[in-house]
Please model this.
Amino acid sequence: MLKRLPVLLLSIFVVIVTTSPSSMDTADSSSSEAKVHIVYTERPENQKPEEYHIKTLASVFGSQKAAKEALLYSYKHAASGFSAKLTPEQVSQLSKQPGVLQVVPSETLQLHSGQGKLNV
Model:
């Protein structure tokens, strides 16, 4: 597990930096509202990553069609996982699924720098 930690941390950083604010749901902050989450999974064997991700989501959403609609992006290279809009109840259910390693809320962070230069 410790060998995977640098890759996982790098993946989280890349996701945070590259996630577009327009894809985030910021309309209402009620607790039952679906929000974007990053779901880290084991690497699928003998199955394409996106198919595996849809199958994992379908176990919570009840159908492949609903899972495809909720899926925002499949991560296949530095980490295995996907981003999807999930309610708190769906997060709880998905966290218990086999092969799901972690479910975390997606965040967009702004890097601080002065007038185009890094403050070092």
Summary: Residues 16 and 104 are 11 Å apart (CA to CA). The first strand starts at residue 35 and ends at 41. The first helix runs from residue 5 to 18. The chain is about 35% helix and 20% strand.
